[in-house]
Design brief:
Elements lengths: L5 H7 L13 H9 L13 H11 L6 E3 L6 E3 L17 E7 L4 H13 L2 E3 L2 E3 L3 E5 L5 H14 L3 E5 L3 H10 L6 E5 L4 H11 L2 E5 L3 H13 L5 E4 L5 H16 L10 E4 L5 H13 L4 E4 L4 H15 L11 E5 L8 E3 L4 H14 L3 E5 L7 H6 L5 H10 L2 H4 L4 E4 L7 H7 L4 E4 L7 H9 L2
Parallel strand pairs: 3-6, 3-12, 6-7, 7-8, 8-9, 9-10, 10-11, 11-12, 14-15, 14-16, 16-17
Antiparallel strand pairs: 1-2, 4-5, 13-15
Helix pairs in contact: 1-2, 4-5, 5-6, 6-7, 10-11, 12-17, 14-16
The chain binds iron/sulfur cluster (SF4).
Iron/sulfur cluster binds next to helix 2.
């Protein structure tokens, strides 16, 4: 269905202009809905008939598909924009590791334990591997079931069951019925059988073919059968083809309104070379991949991929923030000095890390600055002397330390006079401009 215009939407609204949705008129609300800047649920008076029509029109152009259950579930798709500066991307590219049933159980255990234990903590967020893919390679249905059960016991996040045989995918769907797996992948010949298995067992399914036309024909068939939890598996090609096919699928769904391409994508990466694998996985993360599966787990590669992913999928309109409070760095006591910085996560983690690296135990006062960096917060009037003094009082700084030394960032040296007036009895010390100079500042200036 082509997107409805504001005027078309307005015809379906109550037209009472009651303002309860926060817009002055139903037309203004309709315009916001058309621009996807409001939710239909914000109007309490929409009729069921209008909800059905508008709900279908408001479906995201890329379907959201969730695999796994509980805390281990991961969602893909749901995207509404081509570029993150337009609006936030909704679901991060999931990253998985490939396993298969030709591995012995001890090797499977070793690989799963390694992946499960891996966690990257970055700017206050814990980043994990999302999924494992278990491929049927042994040729034995019994062995495949045994391995799937073993993996399901050892791994509580999402599972992809991969087989070329529809009967094996049905077996996998039945074995993992409680885990909502992704069945990968149906071809034109196996489409109906895999769909039946997925439907009967509450699984999602991927479809694949050599070209996008054939894939689109398969998703159309699934749609006609009212099966929506589909994923498009794009097969390996050159980097250029990978980039092009990912972009065509996203553009087709968003710009051309092609429902047949409006699904998240799956791609297995296996170039035989770790660097090339990292490049291909990086392209998936940067350009529209729903889930990417790597052949091996390599912690060094995952630091890069998860960091890239975090940078792309954070909301550019919402700075990542830490809670405003007085943080203890090391084991400070009543004689420890205090540093102050803003609650922009990146700033907080860099400053706290540099103080920690110096070996000094100190307090770190972090006022509410709406997640802005030091200069931006100062320019916005959120990091001046009066604001910092008020935060020191509200957050109970004076009850934690008798030492009255407060180090401010060098970039806002101009607030030192104002701060001295607002915090009588405190010695305001201008620290370095760059966090990288904190350690030498502590050794050469503060300790002197
Ligand atoms: S709440 Fe509904 S009826 Fe009231 S102004 Fe908004 S759209 Fe119109």
């Amino acid at each position: 269905m082509a997107p409805l215009t504001g005027l078309q939407i307005q015809k379906l609204l109550p037209k009472t202009n009651c303002k309860e949705c926060g817009s002055n008129t139903c037309l203004a609300f309709a315009m916001k809905l058309a621009a996807k800047k409001a939710e239909l649920s914000e109007c309490p008076y929409v009729s069921d008939e209008a909800k059905a029509i508008l709900g279908a029109a408001a479906e995201p152009p890329v379907r959201t598909v969730t695999i796994g259950v509980g805390d281990g579930a991961c969602s893909m798709g749901g995207e509404t924009v081509m570029f993150r500066h337009e609006k936030t991307f909704v679901n991060r590219t999931a990253i998985g590791i490939a396993l298969d049933d030709a591995m012995d159980l001890a090797e499977l255990d070793r690989r799963i334990a390694e992946v499960k234990a891996y966690r990257l903590e970055r700017v206050g967020e814990v980043l994990l591997v999302d999924a494992v893919s278990v491929e049927a390679k042994s040729g034995s249905a019994e062995k495949y079931v045994e391995v799937l059960r073993h993996v399901a016991n050892a791994w509580d996040r999402a599972i992809i069951a991969r087989a070329s045989d529809a009967a094996l995918l049905r077996t996998a769907a039945e074995t993992l019925k409680e885990r909502r797996p992704l069945l990968a992948s149906a071809t034109t010949d196996t489409l109906d059988a895999v769909r039946d298995a997925a439907t009967a067992n509450g699984a999602a399914m991927a479809v694949t073919a050599d070209n996008l036309d054939a894939i689109a024909a398969m998703t159309e068939q699934l749609r006609a059968a009212d099966f929506r939890d589909a994923v498009i598996e794009l097969r390996a090609g050159s980097l250029c083809e990978q980039f092009a096919s990912n972009t065509i699928v996203r553009r087709g769904a968003l710009k051309a309104g092609l429902k047949s391409l409006g699904y998240p994508t799956l791609r297995y990466v296996n170039t035989g070379n770790a660097i090339d694998d990292a490049v291909e996985a990086g392209i998936e993360i940067a350009k529209y991949g729903g889930i990417v599966v790597l052949p091996e787990f390599d912690p060094a590669m995952f630091v890069s991929l998860l960091t890239l992913r975090q940078n792309i999928f954070t909301d550019p309109q919402k700075p990542i923030q830490v809670e405003p409070k007085v943080y203890a760095i090391g084991a400070p006591n009543e004689n420890s000095p205090t540093f102050v910085t803003t609650n922009f996560s990146l700033t907080y983690f860099i400053v706290s890390g540099e103080i920690e690296n110096s070996g000094l135990s100190a307090w770190l006062l972090v006022p509410e600055c709406e997640g802005m960096s030091v200069l931006a917060a100062w320019a916005a009037g959120k990091f001046g002397g009066a604001k910092i003094a008020a935060a020191a009082k509200e957050l109970g700084l004076e009850s934690q330390t008798a030492c009255r030394k407060l180090v401010i960032p060098g970039y806002v040296s101009q607030i030192s006079g104002e701060l001295e007036e607002a915090l009588p009895g405190w010695k305001i010390i201008v620290g370095p401009q760059e966090a990288g100079d904190i350690e030498s500042f502590i050794k050469n200036v503060l300790a002197a």
